[in-house]
Amino acid sequence: MPEPLNKILDKLVCISCASGRLSCPAPETLLCGSCRATFRVVNGIPCFVAEELVSFSEVKETERQHFIDAKQVAYFRESFISRLYNSYHQYAASRRTLLPAPLTLDIGFGIGEHYPFVSAREKAEASFIGLDTDRFKLEYFSALHPELPVVQASALQIPFRDESFDVVQLLATLEHFDAATAAAVLGEAMRVLKPGGYVLACYPAEGSLLLRAGQLIMHGWLRLKTGFDLEHEEVHHHLLSARDIQSMLLSVPGIERCESINYPMNVNSIQLSLFLNEMYRKDQ
Ligand SMILES: [Zn+2]
Asked: What pTM value is reported for the model?
């Protein structure tokens, strides 16, 4: 069994019966001890999606190099653009350090845009776990960083036990869902979060004037550098505004907001913001 998967096996739960523990009778199979459902492990990454979605990626094969180039510029190479985009990664990582040794689930892990902010201890303890439905993105990440566990699963059916995480991160993720789906994702996040655990939600100030101006500049810069045109790219559409997301988070039963920081200026105006960085605490 791949080593990072071994480290999280006791935290996984069968998504078919929602209660069975999983074992790994063969390197490419997980088996539910309760309902006997099996789940494939492909290239070291367990699949908790329907068979026809195992090879799913939102990035077309012909677009993949451009996509990776754009991600490099936006997140992994030093520039004014990556400093902006990485502001919410920095925020989330700084909030995790307030907890002694948190176990964290990152929903919408992508190609590991948060990886540069994962601590040495989190890597050593495999206490930072990525979840995404996109097989291409997860395999791209895993080939570079096989030490960190990732799972291919839907945020609507998270294959982890109730109350197993100290932190659930949703970084630039909620805005990609419609309202009903985002509410269901938050419900699943609450289920897997321990009492007293934290939701870290960082999202673009969609709907604000500053963000629109910033997007035109950033997208123009990325197009110039990489040829990847986010203005004409359907996968990055934002379905929810910052106000939608904020009011949805505030109405989730059983959590309260501890912090809301508007970036780059911490003034309480979505219009003057690029991102909102927020922390919510689940009731004890
Ligand atoms: Zn089962």
From this structure: 0.93
137-168 per-position pLDDT tens digit: 999 999 999 999 999 999 999 999 999 999 99
Q: Would you say the C-alpha torsion 125, 127, 132, 137 has a positive or negative sign?
A: negative
> Which domains are delineated in the chain?
45-282 (3.40.50.150)
CA-based end-to-end distance of the chain = 36
Residue list, CB under 5 A from ion ligand 1: 14, 16-17, 20, 32, 34-35, 37
Expressed in angstroms and rounded, the spacing between residue 113 Cα and the centre of ligand 1 is 32
Residue 211 and residue 79: Cα distance in Å, rounded?
18
- Nearest Cα neighbor of 92 from 79, 82, 105 is 105
For the segment 260-278, what is each residue's pLDDT rounded down to a tens digit?
999 998 888 888 889 999 9
CB 203 within 8 A of CB 175: yes
